């Protein structure tokens, strides 16, 4: 089950947990209210046949999917890729990840520009809204395998911060100010 907490400002190894002292955890409800990040629990042993993932894909219009594995052994230019994933950026489309194996962290910014760390592992599916500043890193296990979902052809262009004038960023900030409305 996913966990989320406010991060400290320590810039040492990005793969560590980086809790504040004392730790400040967030519930899934608070994570959604503050950021619009949605969470689904998916059974990785039965998702191909139980219909849960199929319903989410149908309801949200996901028509394309692929799978990515991140580790030193299976990702070309590993060090370079991991650094690029950890650059603060946004996308014009939502980012959907279902973790099948391994673990890692998605970091997202709240309305006060503070980092919230989201620890994901097998069975965690998160949907990061378009326009939110975020980043990804592996944890100390150095491995994750995940499905990626897209509406239509995959568009995975990161726009590094600052990108405040992009329409998706402005739309995200409007939604954040008004309050997020759940899709499920």
UniProtKB/TrEMBL annotation:
Coiled coil start-end: none
Cofactor note: Binds either 1 Fe or Ni cation per monomer. Iron-binding promotes an acireductone dioxygenase reaction producing 2-keto-4-methylthiobutyrate, while nickel-binding promotes an acireductone dioxygenase reaction producing 3-(methylsulfanyl)propanoate.
MF (Gene Ontology): acireductone dioxygenase (Ni2+-requiring) activity; acireductone dioxygenase [iron(II)-requiring] activity; iron ion binding; nickel cation binding
Pathway(s) where this gene product acts: Amino-acid biosynthesis; L-methionine biosynthesis via salvage pathway; L-methionine from S-methyl-5-thio-alpha-D-ribose 1-phosphate: step 5/6
Keyword annotations: Amino-acid biosynthesis, Cytoplasm, Dioxygenase, Iron, Metal-binding, Methionine biosynthesis, Nickel, Nucleus, Oxidoreductase
GO cellular component terms attached to this protein's record: cytoplasm; nucleus; plasma membrane
One annotated GO biological process: L-methionine salvage from methylthioadenosine
UniProt-listed InterPro entries: ARD, ARD_euk, RmlC-like_jellyroll, RmlC_Cupin_sf
Binding site for Ni(2+): 89, 91, 95, 134
SUPFAM superfamilies: RmlC-like cupins
Cofactors required: Fe(2+); Ni(2+)
Function: Catalyzes 2 different reactions between oxygen and the acireductone 1,2-dihydroxy-3-keto-5-methylthiopentene (DHK-MTPene) depending upon the metal bound in the active site. Fe-containing acireductone dioxygenase (Fe-ARD) produces formate and 2-keto-4-methylthiobutyrate (KMTB), the alpha-ketoacid precursor of methionine in the methionine recycle pathway. Ni-containing acireductone dioxygenase (Ni-ARD) produces methylthiopropionate, carbon monoxide and formate, and does not lie on the methionine recycle pathway.
Family stated for the protein in its record: Belongs to the acireductone dioxygenase (ARD) family.
Family matches, as HAMAP family: Salvage_MtnD_euk (MF_03154)
Protein name as it appears in the record: Acireductone dioxygenase
Naturally occurring in which organism (per UniProt): Euphydryas editha
